[in-house]
Amino acid sequence: MQKAKLRKSRLIDPSRGRSCRSFIGSCLFVTAFCLLPSAFCFAQPGVPQPNSPLYGGGGNSGQSSTGLPPVLKKVGIDQHLNEQLPLDAVFKDEQGRDVRLGQFFNGKPVVLSLVYYQCPMLCNQVMNGMLGSFRQISFNVGEQFEAVTVSFDPNETPVLAAAKKQTYVAGYNRANGAAGWHFLTGDAANIKRLADAVGFRYTWDEQTKQFAHASGIMIATPEGKLARYFYGIDYPPKDLRLSLVEASANKIATPVDALMLYCYHYDPSTGKYGVVIMNVMRVAGVITIILIVGLLFLLRKIGRRRARMIVSEARP
Fold it and tell me: Which helix (H) or strand (E) holds 114?
């Protein structure tokens, strides 16, 4: 009865109550972006799978006491942040045409990966990880960013590159995928220039007839400078998106991206984005003040309406 009376006298406006709840909910939603930790973790070079004698856990007479084959001690990825890529390096595209690396840096950030197309295990997982992340972010290959995959095996041909591209573009299944994801091959000299520039160390293992190499991808700016490194075979979509936003100098950012970048910071030592506590506290403090001011304003407005209604009801 009391609630009905209040509504009848218009002391409480249901629509305004919903507006208040909507306002508070929006603020809390934005706060959650900063307060909640990342829902994903970067996969570090993971547990070897048994379908490759080089990375598998089977008996290898060359293994050291730590269980790591000596050949794997020669491989790795050394971060060369802010270093310039050799944009004049010449490769061949999937059609066998000569292309310069710089042709793919046309005002957009670039996701760069070094693999070899006949790899029996790790390279496919790197590309599968890229594909999975690409499919989960709203940015589109060929629109907001480019993807360049380069074989570091000088014996591989554009025919192999074309077959690999067909598989992954079909899996991506978005417009402009074929135009934005490039699969290249090249000669030993140009491959070495690119690998040295990004710090990608690999070696041929004669025993297994395979290349030993690390797994990871790099993010480059539109000017061809290395901006971010992600290790392993799993690249969380949120972190990939943030890295692309940063590499583009916020040109493809949304307001939410800008807030996320304020709350999260890239750690080169781990290849991860981590929460910046002080920035989170600042954002939380500002949102708290906005909530308090908004509630006070709303209560003051309701109080004035109530006073007017009481005066009008008191008149004969």
Answer: strand 110-115
